[in-house]
Amino acid sequence: MGFECKKVLLFSAFFLSGAVIVLIPCIVVIARRSNNCPVQTTTTVTTPPTTIWNASDYQSNSEYYQSLISPRNFDQSDNLRLDRLSSPQFHPTNGKSIIYLRRQYHMPDLRGSTTTLHWLDLETNTTVQLTRPIWGIHDQQFFWVDNNTILFLSNRASTDLRQIFQLTLPSNVSQTADFIDPIQITNYPLNIDNLLVNRQASRLAFSCQVYPNLTIEETADRQMAEKASDRSIYQFDKLFIRHWDEYMTGRRHHPFLVQIARRSNGIFNFSSEPFDVLFSVDSDSPTRPFGDAKVQWSFSATGNSFAYTRQYDETSAVTWTTNLDIWTVNLSVPEHLSVCITCDNLATDTDPSYSPTDDSILVYRSHSIPGYESDQFKVKIYNRSSTTIVVLDNGDRSIQAMTWSRDGQSLYLEIGEEANNVIYYLSNIFTDRSINLLIRNGTSHNVNVHPIDNLTFVFTHDSILEPANIYLYLSNGSSRSLTDHNKVLLAKVKMSNVAEKFSFSGYQNETVWGWHVPPANGTNSSAPLAFLIHGGPQSSWYDAWSYRWNFQSFSSQGYAVIAINFHGSDSYGQNFTDSIIGEYGSLPYEDLKLGLSYALNKFPYINASRAAALGASYGGFMVNWIAGHPEMSVRFKTLICHNGALDTRSKSYSTDELWFNEHDVGNYTPWDNPAVYEEFNPVNHVANTPTSIGRALTLHMIHVRIENIRSIRINSNWTQPMLIIVGAHDYRIPETQGIGTFTALQRRGIPSR
């Protein structure tokens, strides 16, 4: 391609390559397992060849970037080399130290990663890497169960399967000179995918993917037999056939409950047989694709009750309903029966969290509209002895997460608010509730409350200008960063230090917000534009760091970035989010047009003749929609469509989650009301067919020879070059949608890749 779009396409192809899902066979399921593995625990530590520590092959990003002589412009490879920090937890009794997870990548080629446990003394800032970093080994989901004991999941097992491990800390961790080798607690023939430990360290819950009515061992045997038979065909009698990025071939995430005890040597083991809570049920808990035990499971204060979220996978209705329910299990009685506490609500109920002081009370998040996954999440308080209470019933923002104070009287709330993920403190939830905003800027997650001081907590924080770090919030209202693993890397790259919000009059003169990030080299000279369109569509461009669509990856290469949070975006109130229903190609499209004009006028350094529009998922749909509307498409030198829909009606028959399409067109199926699927269908605008052709095609009304119809020139709406990026493992937007876009462009002679 001969003009400025070539630069955009080549850069974007590299930038987005990390987000393209690798092609893998989607029918044949290959399961790894050990041979004749015992179910019971083992304390034997083995170090198989696959997990040998090779110190000469380990280099931190700090060591690599320290060796670079001169600063460079930040690009996507730098972004992927950043350490990723998460899950901070206080010492369980004194709160004087924390442990967190650190994910590192192989330097400089990124051909591998590892996740390890790190300890940090809050008084001296001394940091110790507790577990050995080995490429391909990932520690996760840890629980600090007493002063010196950590239980966690890892694939350090000799079988390469994820199992439960125990790490015993020395009395003086700060003097640790070498890594601490953990002890393997379980040795199952399947991966353990989730882990939750109660406060007393007397019980834990874990999940394995098993077939309904089969044990872990029987599931492993069945998988081995299927593999030996070279079976490559599956039969489906209900939906889902596939969900998000995997085929649903029968195994389910089931929670197993088990009692644990510490032996005389200090090592934990199972003291009862694990109990499959959903043994005969064809359903998942945690739910797919993104549910996890941290938020969807909960032990009560005494550890004698267990709550979990599940959906109803038993019939095909799971694909067109969003009904999730919370179930509880009384562990003090032998039957271990599950009781549904939210079955009167046909919308989503999820994320149960027991009070840390009262077994009869739990909070959870709840929708009120069935079939609407972007409905407002409200927090409800369930009390076995009284009615359920809705917290902050008059608010118009969704509550994304909640964390109890240690005294069981207050909640920390994560809320999306005008493109920030902020933290509120809701005190005295049972009496005169008051709410205070604590963290107002950027994106904050993973609140963990101090064991003694209810108003002190650690959390992760990031922004457009800063990747995630662990922060400490003190009861006096101050906060500070605790980690600097990426300090050297960030000092050796040039990035933009400005990310500003702007607002303009969008559709029907309603206020719409957007982001402007100028080029890292400043605004003194003309700069090309990267016009980013977010997916969802009920999401937003947040003040957040991204390892995929990162504004800095564009701005550091000389682009101005404009990103509009159009009608339908979240964090601006539920009415604004709901406004996109039935309006996929109208309100957001008008906002994008008006936002582009406003930005070009407000930031005159941007070269309007060197603009590219980029979008993924819904953003990819919008790129295809823009391509078919010349009043907008000709404003861009090139378009970039990442997993975007071309034919919305066709997609509605092949996508995974049917509720998504059906609700957003007004609760219609494509056969009940085909017109609503065609109203904003990009495929109808590939060519601008004159009305004379439509009349001529009605041959029984007007006698026109077919040859004459073919001779009429069809003017193409699509004119601009386009890069199409397709993930063949994306079952929300099947790959044929992107292939169809490319086919149309090639057939019409439009430069495309």
Automatic annotation (TrEMBL):
All residue ranges annotated as the Peptidase S9 prolyl oligopeptidase catalytic domain in the record: 545-751
**Signal peptide region:** none
Keywords in alphabetical order: Hydrolase, Membrane, Signal, Transmembrane, Transmembrane helix
Give the record's GO biological process terms: proteolysis
Which InterPro entries does the UniProt entry name for this protein?
6-blade_b-propeller_TolB-like, AB_hydrolase_fold, Peptidase_S9_cat
Query: Can you name one GO molecular function term for this protein?
Result: serine-type endopeptidase activity
| Segments traversing the membrane | 9-31
Output this protein's name: Peptidase S9 prolyl oligopeptidase catalytic domain-containing protein
Organism, by scientific name, is Rotaria magnacalcarata
Lineage in the entry?
Eukaryota, Metazoa, Spiralia, Gnathifera, Rotifera
